Amino acid sequence: MGCGYVVISIFLCFSFTPYCITLAKSTDVGGNLQMNKKYAMWRTRPGGFYGLRAEISIWGSPNQEYSQDSGASIQIYCQDGGHYNLIEAGFHVSPSLYHNRDVRFFTYWTKDFKSAGCYNLRCKGFVPASGAALVPGQAVTPPSSYGEYDHYVRLSPNKDPKSEDWVVYRHDLQTPSFLGYFPVQLCSGTPRIEALTGFVNYLKSTHGPPMGSGHFPDEKDDDKTTAYFRHVKNYDSKGRAFEPVTVNMTPLVDKPDCYTETDFLPGINKGYHFHYGGPSGCVG
């Protein structure tokens, strides 16, 4: 995963389920935890879910340190025995991965959060479509500009009813554009948890980078000043999109003094949505 770190697993346990989601954290070669990973997410309760679609706002992070990562993604966790596997698609700024600070589309998968899995096309896993409108690792421009305009991409990883693979589409072009798929073997079990996630990663010896726009969400619900997930839809077993059932959704913010999120609610011209984010400087 770069920066001279190896990966071990930690556990994120939800109050509404006996299961724990396994997350990755970086360590040095001596086994000492070196990285903080912070989230602002809304996620489903464990169940028979078949995918998510959402507009994800695109925000840059031009002053981000080389070792840091900041972004937003749609995550799908599939139970595999006593743990969960993960497939993920979204956008991030990750200088250690790309050697620059461009906002890039990424995919990620892991079956054990240790040795199996990778970003983008660095190992066998996600299969890109020929001539796709976005390929893993591709820069996405322009980023949103604070107070001026917001830029988004509408993504949907969902389970194909025929192949049972997890297909990824882009929906903000003239017609839906097939980007590729995660083979069913990477995420086959149930129950599943689906999450809309803003995230940051940073060395414990440094302060955290901005999440989203670098500003806390507020009561104004302003798309031009804070990051968002918008027009959220679930998918059923036949590949049909439908409005989420809010009773199935629950929030997680693991460092609320640094990063926050709003309620998950329907809105005019926004559908089901929420805003999230926070400034740089987080400690701990």
Describe this protein's structure.
The protein is mainly β and 284 residues long. The chain has one domain: Jelly Rolls (Sandwich), CATH 2.60.120. It is 1% helix and 44% strand. The protein contains one helix and 19 strands. It has one helix at 95-98, and strands at residues 6-13, 20-27, 35-44, 52-57, 69-80, 83-93, 104-110, 117-119, 127-128, 152-159, 166-170, 177-182, 192-203, 227-235, 241-242, 249-253, 260-261, 265-267, 271-277. The strands form three sheets. Strands 4, 9, 10, 11, 12, 14, 15, 17, 18 and 19 form a ten-stranded antiparallel beta sheet that branches. β11 (166-170) and β12 form a beta hairpin. The longest helix is centred in the middle third of the chain and has 4 residues, at 95-98. It is globular, with a radius of gyration of 17 Å. The two termini are 21 Å apart. 44% of the residues are buried. Mean pLDDT is 89; it is low at 1-32.
